[in-house]
Recover the amino acids of this structure.
């Protein structure tokens, strides 16, 4: 699993002109799932995202996590995070999981994230054409890949 995490002061996902999910202060998580991913990857990543200290404390130091600041999560599926651009100019997405594998993992990721946060998380719709609007706070953007957790 690969994620791009952006600390935001606001973010929303719109589908066909309708807001599907919106948050204020928190994290926008773009989630890419590959065929080799499993529940262990989900558990590790959910805990990493929940614990990552990228919010400022009173001294202006990034020392607080999302729960410390009462933040929200917006989780968006994004298979293009597994694009291979080594050959030619058209990306290959062969590492991205097919929906029959990815959807259950995506749903489990949402369920575990909600449990970790102690409240519902906002989401897009898997496979939908979505438009994202966000205000990146900082800017702070972090990339995490479960294949590099060692």
């Amino acid at each position: 699993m690969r994620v791009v995490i952006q600390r935001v002061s606001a973010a929303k996902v719109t589908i066909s002109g309708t807001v599907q999910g919106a948050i204020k202060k928190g994290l926008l998580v773009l989630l890419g799932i590959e065929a080799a991913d499993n529940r262990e990857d989900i558990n590790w990543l959910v805990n990493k995202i929940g614990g990552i200290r990228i919010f400022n404390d009173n001294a202006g130091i990034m020392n607080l996590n999302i729960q410390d600041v009462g933040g929200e999560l917006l989780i968006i599926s994004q298979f293009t995070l597994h694009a291979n651009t080594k050959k030619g100019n058209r990306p290959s997405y062969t590492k991205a999981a097919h929906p029959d594998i990815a959807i259950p993992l995506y749903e489990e990721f949402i369920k575990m994230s909600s449990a970790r946060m102690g409240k519902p998380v906002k989401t897009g719709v898997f496979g939908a054409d979505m438009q994202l609007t966000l205000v990146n706070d900082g800017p702070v953007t972090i990339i995490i890949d479960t294949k590099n957790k060692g």
About this structure: The chain has one domain: 2-148. The chain has a mean pLDDT of 96.
